Amino acid sequence: MSEPTTRTPIVLVVEDEVPLRESVARHLAASGYTVVEAGSVAEGQAAAWEHQPDVILLDVLLPDGSGYELCAKLRPITAAPIIYLTALGQDRNIVQGLATGADDYIAKPFSLEVLTARIQAQLRRTSSPRKGRIDLPPLHLDYLTGEVLLEGREVHLTKMELQLLGFFATNVGVGATQPELLASVWRTKADIPTNTVRQTVSSLRRKLGLNAGSAFELEMTPDKRYVFRQVRFDPPAHLGP
Ligand code: CA
To answer: How far apart are CA 203 and CA 208, in angstroms?
Structure first.
């Protein structure tokens, strides 16, 4: 028998209460997980990019923003299940949390055994080779390597363009306004020039070579939403299955 190649699942813990974060991290490490810790929205976003976690535990009240904001930023770049850890137990908050794209919600205080069981449930539900990838033939995007293939052609994107494409590819036909893109793809706290979104959309469109014959279109609707649509679904024959 050859060596098993399955790696241990990576759990990103975003929590600013250090004693709680450390006790969760210790327990998960003892349960066989690789644990990455972050204490803020900014650290969590960076760690998600760097480590491509399999599960994300997300506190709601963070020193530089909310877990909801972070969840909205992470959704375009990862399909990993997101579980909120929060002391805000009211129904309204739970609804808000799940509406941002989270998968589960655990109210503090919680038992570490329950937490582990919820993580295992999420991993069972989502275990698939699609982690970190978006496959929308003929578009393929890999967050881990930054590789983007469109109709078999490699497209070199900046990190922001990759994030923006990831957002569009996971929101096909829905699109977003400029403020929504700033909130979901860019950091909302930063003072971003208003033409940044337009310029990034424009360079993305140029690099993808979107034109009348393309499989996708990226247009601004009359109500000022950038919408990414698939207009052709048949991959060219030379690409094979
Ligand atoms: Ca907190």
So the answer is: 8
